[in-house]
Amino acid sequence: MLFSRHRNHLPTAEEALKGRPEPGFSVPDRHTVLGNPLTGPYPEGLVVADFGLGCFWGAERKFWEAPGVWTTLVGYQGGHTENPSYEEVCSGLTGHTEAVRVVFDPKITSYAALLKVFWESHDPTQGFRQGNDVGTQYRSAIYSHSPEQQSEAESSRTAYQSVLTSSGYGEITTEILPAGPFYPAEPYHQQYLDKNPAGYCGIGGTGVSCPIGVAPADG
């Protein structure tokens, strides 16, 4: 069974599945909630940010509900296999994590505000899991699109680690790396919880406020 393998080990490029030069499906044209196109090129002035915080169904909803977000798109990032399928990613043999691409208007919101949503929406100390979801595809990750995003993400990790430590949590395991290829997920994954309001959502935070862009958290 593909789903039972390599849950706690990231494959090397040599170990990873080969993949394919083109995806085997087409991504829907528009976001079912926000009404805007899912894929680029995006309008001038908008900014792209990529986050992995567990099952992307619930993670995507956290971001499409945030002010200033123009569109969101779920996919696979941080691995080796070209144009992987969901089943391949869940096998642990591609190296990808489930990710959300967030396109936002910097005139309305900020990268710092999205980092706050990211940190507070999951437990970033769990390694290759998120709650009951176990596997490398559920690891916490931030993939930056500029040196400024990279620096801001790293600074936010340091700030959140301080308040997590004070609250009894362990070390943050979030990987923060320059963005590599982002492969959109299958159509049924896009805005899944809008299409299936009672669907599974494994996203849950620590309850510890993140001090990014706001006054330091109490306690």
Describe this structure as you would to a colleague:
- Residues 50-201 form the Peptide methionine sulphoxide reductase MsrA domain.
- With 219 residues, the chain is α+β, with helices and mostly antiparallel strands.
- The protein is 22% helix and 18% strand.
- It has helices spanning 56-64, 86-90, 111-120, 147-166, 192-195, and strands at 47-53, 69-77, 97-104, 129-130, 133-134, 140-144, 175-178, 182-184.
- The protein starts with 46 loop residues before the first strand and ends in a 24-residue tail after the last helix.
What is the H/E order? EHEHEHEEEHEEH
Rg estimate, integer Å? 17 Å
Strand order of the largest sheet: 7-6-1-3-2-8
Q: Total helix count?
A: 5
Report the average pLDDT across residues.
93
Helicity level: 10-25%
The computed structural class is alpha+beta
Q: Which spans have pLDDT < 50 for at least 5 consecutive residues?
A: 214-219
| Gross geometry | globular
Counted beta strands? 8
Name the beta content range. Answer: 15-25%
Distance between the termini: 46 Å
Characterize the biggest β-sheet: 6 strands, mixed
